[in-house]
Structures are given as C-alpha cells and as structure tokens.
Amino acid sequence: MAAPTTLKDLAALVGGEVIGDPATRIDNAWPPQDCDARSITLIDSAESLPKLADCLAAAAVTPADVEEDKLDRPAIRVADVHAAFTAIVMHYRPRRERATTGVHPTAIIAKSARLGEAVSIGPGAVVGEDAVLGDGVVIGANSVVSDDCRIGRASHLGSRVTLNEATTLGERCRLHSGVVLGADGFGYRQVDGRHVPVPQLGTVEIGDDVEIGANTTIDRGVYGPTKIGDGTKIDNLVQIGHNCRIGRHNLLCSQVGIAGSTTTGDYVVMAGQVGVRDHISIGKGAIISAQAGVTNHVRPGEVMLGAPATPLREQKLKLAAIAKLPQLRKEFRELRKEIAELQRRLDEGGSHRLPHAA
User: Fold this and answer.
1) Half-sphere exposure (CA, 13 Å, Cβ side) for 201?
2) What's the pTM?
3) Same domain for 249 and 121?
C-alpha cells in the first residue's frame, strides 16, 4: 500500500481542483459505505451528495459542477470522476504487475504448437497440437487450449479456461476463469423414440477486444461458426447457443441465455436474465430489459420489456392497465349491486326487468 498522501498530491495526480484544506491527509480510497476518517471517497453526481451525511471520509472526489457551498468537507473536483477515483484507488492499492513467466514446468505444450514472443503459460495448462498463440498471450493455470486453436496477440485467459478444438480468439481479448468456448451445441433428433445427438462440426470465432466473464459458455456451430463480434462484452454465467451471430460492441449481462441460430446487430444491450428464443434477429441498438423473454424479431433501436417481451411503450400501457384492475374490480362490484337494487325496485313496481348484467 502507498504511503499517506495529501489532498494536494492527489489533485495533482488526477488533474483536479482542491476544495478546502490541501494538506488534508489521505491514507486510502473507498466507497462511501466503507470509509474511515482517513479515506477519500467517490461522489459521482450532485444527486449523490446526501451519501456524505453518514460517511466518515475525510474528503471526496466530485464532478466539476458540484457547487463548493454544497460540500461539507474537503474535496477534489474533476471532469471525469470515475477515471480520477480509479487512479487514486490504484495509487493506494496498485495491482501486481504480471511478470512474463514463460512456460511453467508443469504446463504441457504440444510439439507442433507455435508460441509467439513473451507468451506466459501457467502451471498445469495444456496447449494442443497445431495451436497458435500470438505475442504476449497469457494462459492461466489449468487452462486448456485444444488442438488447432488460434489466439491473437495480447489476449489473456484466466485460470481453468477451456478452448475446445479449432476455436479462434482475436487480439486483446480477456477470458475470465471458467469460460468454455466450443463445447458441443445442444442438438438432438429423435430416432426410434430416442434422442440422438446431431454432430456439432462447426467452430467458435471470437473477434478482437472481446471480454467474457467467469463461467460463461459459447457453443460451437453445427456446421459453421458461432461468432462474437469485435468489442462485445459478456458478463458472468451467460450461455450462447450454437450458430449464433452476436454483433459488434454488444453488452450481455449476467445470466443471459441466447438459444441457437439467433443474430444480433451491433450495440445491442441485454440486461440480466434475459432469455432469447432460437432463430430470431435482434436489430442494431436494441435494448432488452432485465428478465425479458424475447420470442420474436426485434426492430433496430427498440426497447423491449416483459415476458413475452413487447416494445416498451406497449408494455407501459399494459402495466398501467393492470395497476388499475383492483380499482376497476371494486367499481364493477359496486355497479352490480346498484343494478341489482334498481332491478329490485322495478320488480316491486311491476315494471319490465332490466337486461341481465354480468
């Protein structure tokens, strides 16, 4: 951990403006709920200022537009609060730089595998026949790179990652622990009353600058590739079925499940626990809200909500109507009573009966 620092020093580090005592001593940086009296904390908007009321922090990093008279303690005002606070956290708690270790003695490397410059392969890792690893690739402990895989330069595999046969990984990708690429897709056909596996003969192709979270799985295609576009970021515990084509710069949050042969355009966002059926297309820039169930094609730029997922404007009308049902039910019961009373009075007067009310 870095030595204690003054507020003035931290402001110089991040290019910020000091508000209050520049000699304020800061020992560490934490979120508001974790601070002590020697810490600096993050307030990322004027609306978040009330968080300081119960916070012990000696100072705060705030946006540049926060007014000085709204602050109850010293602060550093900056244009980009998250970049500044990240730099301060790393000042106090720097991540250990990875040293290039080469090939660990317990790793198993096939003779036909080709390794680039400055490759690091951890303990217990396996690299198969004819696999190609670009310059600066890191393979974590107990990971498996199977035969005929290709990994682009500067990509990083955490521990226990599995790349099955002929998987292609682009440059500067990051795969977290437990990722599995290229396992067989879920394909069966019935023969004489039995489920018989359909051979999964395709591959997985991952573009450049893709990040894939822990324990996510992407299945190989049946005959061709399952593809993930450049710049896409995938959270933990996501499942992508065989033959899917995921566009560039998608954001797929935790526990998303996408069934086989589905296509997404660029910049699609799927929030947590979204489920997508097979053989549909989701247009560029579409946003799928949390826990939605997508059963039909989605137009570009559409915001979808609910299960089954419908456009946001339609779903809002449905939800508004549902919210009114208890009151409508109460009014309906009261109307039935009034009609029954009116009918009773008419019957007593010998008049004709009213039409039957439901």
Assistant:
1) 3
2) 0.83
3) yes
